[in-house]
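Tutorial, part two.
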Amino acid sequence: MMKIADILESRLVEFAEIESRDQGKPVSLAKSVDIPRAVYNFRVFATAILHDVTKSDYQDQFNAINYTERMPVGVAGLISPWNLPLYLLTFKVAPAIATGNCVVAKPSEMTSVTAWMLCKIFNEAGLPKGVVNVVFGTGPKAGAAIVRHPEVSLVSFTGSTATAQRIRMDSAPFSKKLSLELGGKNPCIIFKDANLEKCVPTVIRSSFANQGEICLCSSRIFVQNEIYNEFLQKFVNTARTLKVGDPKTDVNLGALISEDHLSKVRGYVKIAQEEGATILCGEGVDALEIPTELQQGYFMRPTVITDVADSSRLMQEEIFGPVVCVVPFTDEQEVISRANSVKYGLSASVWSQDVGIAHRVAHSLQAGTVWHNCWMIRDLNMPFGGMKSSGTGREGAHDSIDFFTEQKTVCIQIN
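Running the prediction step on this input gives:
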């Protein structure tokens, strides 16, 4: 696994350029985030498995020793999404093979090139044939075949909540272990004492990184009344400075994944218009200035919408694009209730200089991860996953080892 990481790292620029071309994200983002994280995934799990400690106990009344040992589950079915292709595929493959399993992996049919390239690295690194098997195809065919196969003992899936519902049904007759990392409608809560000099650029990034095509992106921004206008002005002004265009150049946002997805995201802006919301910048307000040769591309300006009801589809459904809603709130209890009023519970972020607020709000939010005065700082030793419709199970250095193994208890009575 370390050799896989080393080879991948030596080809970082090549992989980043291909990932960008396949997915639409800026090359700079793939160079600084996607491919380095894929390298890190292999190194983290290669070392984590060396330090895994099993349990043991001595029962004096029976003169017996009990201990546990981990067993690989066998064949792991891994289905990864199109938004962070290699980043998330390797987050599944690395712990699966570190714990002794064989893998059948299916990358998204829309972004599968770097997965194919990774197969060549597996061979170059000397990974035994048959340990990792990558199949290319659509979800209803290749994905469903993995989920329904009786010899696939578990399924790790990252993608939509709707697809996960199908996976649950199809796998139920086999009692398979499931790890499902699904959608999010993540709140960002900004209290009146927040440091806006740090807050605004960070929330810009949490809203529009990767064209907003990250399940952890902030999509509902709640700002306390006292600083609402100030924040909104700074936020909109900064959003307007973001460059959209050719991912190979110095831009902040590249292209969305497909024409259909662009149409879907634009459809939410139309809903905002129909509901009488205010579009402060972006789609329908600011001109998209890109070269003629890119006019047919799937580009969209960062869009900020206000005057939206909590019941609106814009506040309830995952848009998965560069569209955010900014709304005011009065007090702590009110915003907690509103933040929790969606079916999702993946992540949240809170901005305040009051440590009491930090702990109280983090405790009350229905989210698998809560960031305070930051975003996307990930420690792989900590569990990652969602609540409610955002998923089942947790992943991370320790949790993934649990998921990809079965624990066996052995009891030996000493004569």
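The longest helix spans residues 27-48. In part three we will examine how such features are distributed along the chain.
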